[in-house]
């Protein structure tokens, strides 16, 4: 995998919320978001319900670009989650990041095109550390990678996405089962898309 070292920091004030959180504040360059209890993004599969209440701070993302969202993964309640969100509309979107599920932190992605699918892998050693999620947008697909601290990025998912549709992307968080979740987002940057898959 190769990508440009040119990066542009996106100001928190640039984005617009898909659904406003309970509260947000900045502390220096850090954005601290308080999630609403019951917030989530999911459509139909297995559970039968539609949840469209995630807190995603999004701005336009063009093919040939990538976003990287960094945050502290301090989660300890079922389905606490944060990462990067890519949205075309309410039925076509992707959320990728880490989520506390079944007693430990999980790295994964939900890809939704009418109905959601979910893939995860355990990363308990990432708990309490800086996690960066990278979403690289090509003309007809998105490649999701993630890392902890300054370790190498690992591949999470390659999925069809687009083409020829307006895409918005940025950081997100949800708290499906509890109140009081605060997420510290450290940075939101845009850079060139990955030069290759491997």
From TrEMBL:
SUPFAM superfamilies referenced in this protein's UniProt entry, alphabetically: Concanavalin A-like lectins/glucanases
Ranges of biased composition (kind: Polar residues): 1-17
InterPro entries the UniProt entry points to: ConA-like_dom_sf, DUF1349
Disordered: region residues: 1-24
Protein name, entry field: DUF1349 domain-containing protein
Record organism: Jaapia argillacea MUCL 33604
